[in-house]
Amino acid sequence: MAQLIGGIATSHIPAIGGAIHKGLQKDPYWAPFFDGFPPVHDWLARTRPDVVVMFYNDHGLNFFLDKMPTFAVGAAAQYENADEGWGIPTLPPFRGEVDLSWQIINTLVGQEFDITTCQEMLVDHACTLPLKLLWPGDACPVAIVPVCINTVQFPLPSAKRCYALGKAVGDAIRAWDSDKKVAVIASGGLSHQLDGERAGFINKGFDLQFMDSLLSNPEWATQFSTTELVRKAGTQGIELLMWLAMRAALSTGASPAVRKVHSNYHIPISNTATGLLALEPCD
Ligand code: DHB
Ligand code: FE
Questions:
Q1: HEC states along the chain?
Q2: Structural domain span for residue 34
Q3: Is there a catalytic annotation at residue 41?
Q4: Based on the structure, what is the number of domains in the chain?
Q5: Which of 30, 112, 237, 260 has its CA at 20 to 30 Å from residue 245's CA atom?
Q6: pTM of model > 0.90
Q7: Ligand 1 center to residue 126 CA distance, Å?
Q8: Would you write out the chain's pLDDT as a tens digit for each of its 283 residues?
């Protein structure tokens, strides 16, 4: 059976792509963000996943307001990047892992999640930047399965539902008939709000409590409605739903506990409180 080796959560912000493109990783503005990654690179060099399941939110690229699935799973052989144009100018397509896609799709539908399956899917900065941050070299060594959660148009799925989705994805990975190693990634958050009267809103106290809860009490955030989470973390900070899904994927009935590999938190990059968290399951 496949091995689920761990999970990583990271913020995504299009400007990170611009910084990578311009080689600004050591610039004083960017260093506190990029300096968080080497311990996670070391962990990835040791654990060497073959495949990544990417929980992320599309920002109006592949899905627009006219057609907005709550949950969508990619089942493509490759994924082309397209974006707003603030990031890395061009990226080669990312390799899909179609067999795992269908394993996840079949498991989710079997567990009564009504998902959208996408045999063609464009991916934006939320899917591509974590891959570039975690594997900075030219060629991306992992194949991907994108799992998209709607955080851009209300009604949004609840934290409780995203936790359940993550758990089901974890079940699917562990039951996959393959000798491959799989990591789960969450792309988004932490607190930020890009528009409206509260533009620029950041909530460090909540972010740190949330990050801590993923270790000590992973279902803590599921007590909150999406409206409450938007109040606490901002309209776009609700992207923290990805972190919950990633964390849930690492829980099994037998062993819900995880060990922290590394974390980082830095305010701000652009308008966002950035977080990084790498976790591995306890045996
Ligand atoms: C920013 C953050 C995001 O999550 C995003 O998708 C776009 C922009 C920002 O802080 O600039
Ligand atoms: Fe975003």
A1: CCEEEEEEEECCCHHHHHHHHHCCCCCCCCHHHHCCCHHHHHHHHHHCCCEEEEEECCCCCCCCCCCCCCEEEECCCEEEECCCCCCCCCCCCEEECHHHHHHHHHHHHHCCCCCEEECCCEECHHHHHHHHHHCCCCCCCCEEEEEEECCCCCCCCCHHHHHHHHHHHHHHHHCCCCCCEEEEEEECCCCCCCCCCCCCCCCHHHHHHHHHHHHHCCCHHHHCCHHHHHHHHCCCHHHHHHHHHHHHHCCCCCCCCEEEEEEEEEEEECCEEEEEEEEEECC
A2: 3-281
A3: no
A4: 1
A5: 30
A6: yes
A7: 9
A8: 999 999 999 999 999 999 999 999 999 999 999 999 999 999 999 999 999 999 999 999 999 999 999 999 999 999 999 887 778 888 899 999 999 999 999 999 999 999 999 999 999 999 999 999 999 998 999 999 999 999 999 999 999 999 999 999 999 999 999 999 999 999 999 999 999 999 999 999 999 999 999 999 999 999 999 999 999 999 999 999 999 999 999 998 777 789 999 999 999 999 999 999 999 999 7
| CATH number of the domain that residue 202 is part of | 3.40.830.10
Which of 59, 125, 262, 266 is catalytic? The answer is 125
